[in-house]
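Input structure tokens:
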């Protein structure tokens, strides 16, 4: 029986270019985490830029090698940071944007508006006007009100490219808050309604129907469930574009085993080959599986309280990682210069909520006040849902590569907390 070294298992959760220095301190992208803490403070989200770029390239290659007319649209909502969007644009990806704010950051990142795909179940006039004015390539129609608004907002003589979002009727094996493809979902239209929406758009002089879109859910570890969504949209007819959504899960813990990118691409393209027109264009929209493993978050231990449970409190928490409280997602953690193993503790945040738990039941080696704590796999949705609860200052984002670091999002200041007061 093969024994797996817990230290190696833990390192495997960090970005690919992670190692330990001679004194045991973790290094990401060639940068020591204690040096990063000294320069940028804590908490800080550290992104391995090379890992991010390589993942984008791997995604494009995995799909285009199997289906040449494939595009990859990064789901910006998973890490809606201008610098991350810019990396995706530079690597040749399209961008999936959910709302006006992500349109604005995508444009600042240098994205070609024609390569943006706008999503949203409750798009406002303002957001659709922003899309129309900037020439966004595709608006995903989620409801009949989207059609009414576009009929009113698109100027005469122009047509807005559209896809119709279809509910595939699949019960996703994921947390309830991350399931989107079931009957009763707030996203998209059931097939009969989708047919009506398709007919309305085809009759419109203000819209051009390119095709259909579907999505099963997020953090899915079963590629067959994702591939099963192809059949319901194939049944709606022949189109130029079939957007197959995203949803591939990531490995957050020792117990989780996410499918490989090749396994995912193979399953999706196998279904596409069997059911879709050979000359059609397919789009996939990875978010979590694109960025989660490229980052870790660095904290400072502020308190160690020993009692019935050993509570190790840090200077962040649900203000920079709401995923635990919202979806129950488990993370792992380590003392940055004593990697793996140790006594079982509960890592808690600084916020005035009993639910502000970062990791429940994690081994840490002799945790003490002042230690640096590193949590891997924080590239998805942590920055997205960062907040100012209890007056917390939102965390910075630092890119590392080849032993150098650069700040791409600064930390909030105390003045920022007051800046919206009138």
């Amino acid at each position: 029986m093969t024994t797996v070294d817990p230290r190696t298992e833990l390192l495997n959760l960090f970005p690919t270019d992670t190692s330990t220095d001679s004194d045991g301190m973790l290094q990401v992208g060639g940068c020591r985490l204690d040096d990063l803490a000294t320069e940028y403070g804590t908490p800080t989200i550290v992104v391995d830029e090379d890992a991010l770029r390589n993942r984008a390239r791997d995604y494009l290659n995995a799909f285009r090698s199997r289906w040449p007319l494939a595009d990859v649209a990064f789901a910006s909502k998973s890490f809606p940071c201008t610098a991350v969007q810019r990396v995706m644009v530079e690597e040749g990806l399209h961008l999936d944007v959910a709302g006006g704010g992500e349109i604005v950051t995508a444009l600042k990142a240098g994205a070609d508006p024609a390569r943006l795909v706008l999503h949203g179940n409750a798009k406002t006039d303002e957001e659709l006007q922003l899309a129309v004015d900037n020439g966004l390539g595709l608006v995903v129609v989620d409801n009949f009100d989207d059609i009414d608004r576009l009929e009113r907002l698109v100027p005469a003589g122009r047509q807005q490219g559209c896809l119709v979002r279809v509910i595939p009727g699949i019960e996703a094996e994921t947390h309830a808050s991350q399931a989107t493809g079931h009957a009763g979902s707030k996203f998209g239209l059931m097939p009969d309604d989708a047919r009506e929406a398709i007919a309305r758009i085809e009759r419109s002089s203000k819209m051009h129907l390119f095709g259909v879109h579907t999505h099963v859910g997020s953090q899915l570890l079963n590629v067959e469930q994702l591939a099963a969504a192809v059949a319901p949209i194939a049944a709606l007819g022949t189109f130029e574009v079939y957007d197959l959504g995203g949803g591939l899960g990531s490995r957050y813990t020792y117990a989780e085993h996410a499918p490989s990118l090749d396994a995912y691409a193979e399953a999706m393209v196998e279904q596409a080959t069997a059911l879709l027109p050979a000359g059609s264009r397919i789009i996939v929209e990875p978010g979590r599986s694109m960025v989660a493993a490229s980052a870790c978050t660095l904290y400072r231990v502020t308190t160690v309280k020993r009692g019935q449970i050993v509570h190790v409190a840090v200077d962040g928490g649900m203000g920079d990682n709401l995923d635990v409280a919202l979806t129950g997602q488990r993370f792992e953690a380590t003392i940055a210069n004593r990697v793996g193993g140790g006594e079982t503790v509960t890592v808690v945040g600084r916020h005035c909520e009993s639910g502000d738990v970062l990791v429940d039941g994690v081994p840490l080696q002799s945790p003490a006040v002042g230690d640096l704590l590193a949590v891997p796999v924080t590239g998805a949705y942590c920055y997205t849902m960062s907040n100012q609860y209890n007056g917390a200052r939102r965390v910075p984002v630092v890119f590392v590569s080849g032993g150098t670091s650069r700040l791409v999002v600064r930390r909030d200041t105390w003045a920022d907390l007051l800046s919206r007061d009138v």
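The longest helix spans residues 49-64. The chain has a mean pLDDT of 95.
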